[in-house]
TrEMBL record:
Residues 1-34 form the signal peptide. The keyword 4Fe-4S does not apply. It is found in: Membrane. Residues 131-160 have a biased composition (Basic and acidic residues). Keywords: Membrane, Signal, Transmembrane, Transmembrane helix. Its main location: membrane. InterPro entries: PTTG1IP. Residues 130-160 are annotated as: Disordered. This is Pituitary tumor-transforming gene 1 protein-interacting protein. Gene3D superfamilies: Bicelle-embedded integrin alpha(iib) transmembrane segment. It is a single-pass type I membrane protein. The chain crosses the membrane at residues 97-122. PANTHER family: PITUITARY TUMOR-TRANSFORMING GENE 1 PROTEIN-INTERACTING PROTEIN, PROTEIN CBG20567.
């Protein structure tokens, strides 16, 4: 019977906000893990795999350069490397594909959450239209009590009528009926 008003709203946004927070913490942790001795520029003109062994490095395919990932920005600026040529984490995914894939996954998650919320609201409305088992039981018991009360009332009326007949106090249907003859 209680609604999950405020609690439901905070739980609904908890997962996306937690995921975004986790992503930012991972980016900061990745930047902090880079050892000062192995700078990303030392891997320039080597392979992408060697560059990306250090999680704080960014590989640019256009000029085969390995550079420090700009952790102050979410996406590397075009002045460093075009998004279609930038690689981070793995060599086979560029930033454009990563952005598109993350957008699609995020959209699907939002669509799933919206669908679930709409479905739950629809089911809650549907349940509120018909009474549940406890309400049905209460209605049934109330109807049984009303029927027993009517039976007792009729029984008491018949007993009172018998006592009135016995002592001559019975009221006739119409007191003026004897004067009609």
């Amino acid at each position: 019977m209680g609604s999950g008003g405020a609690c439901g709203r905070t739980m609904r946004w908890g997962l996306p906000l937690g995921g975004a927070t986790l992503l930012l913490l991972l980016l900061q942790a990745a930047a902090a893990q880079a050892s000062p001795g192995s700078a990303c520029s030392q891997s320039t003109n080597k392979t992408c795999q060697e560059c990306l062994k250090n999680v704080s490095c960014l590989w640019c395919n256009t000029d085969n350069t390995c550079m420090d990932y700009p952790v102050t920005k979410i996406l590397p600026p075009a002045s460093l490397c075009k998004l279609s040529s930038a690689r981070w984490g793995v060599c086979w995914v560029n930033f454009e594909a990563l952005i598109i894939a993350m957008s699609v996954v995020g959209g699907l998650i939002l669509l799933a959450i919206t669908t679930c919320c709409c479905y739950c609201c629809y089911c809650r409305k549907k349940k509120s239209r018909k009474p549940d088992k406890s309400e049905e039981k209460a209605i049934r018991e109330q109807e049984e009590r009303r029927i027993r009360q009517e039976e007792r009332r009729a029984e008491m009326k018949s007993r009172h009528d018998e006592i009135r007949k016995k002592y001559g106090l019975f009221k006739e249907e119409n007191p003026y009926a004897r004067f009609e003859n």
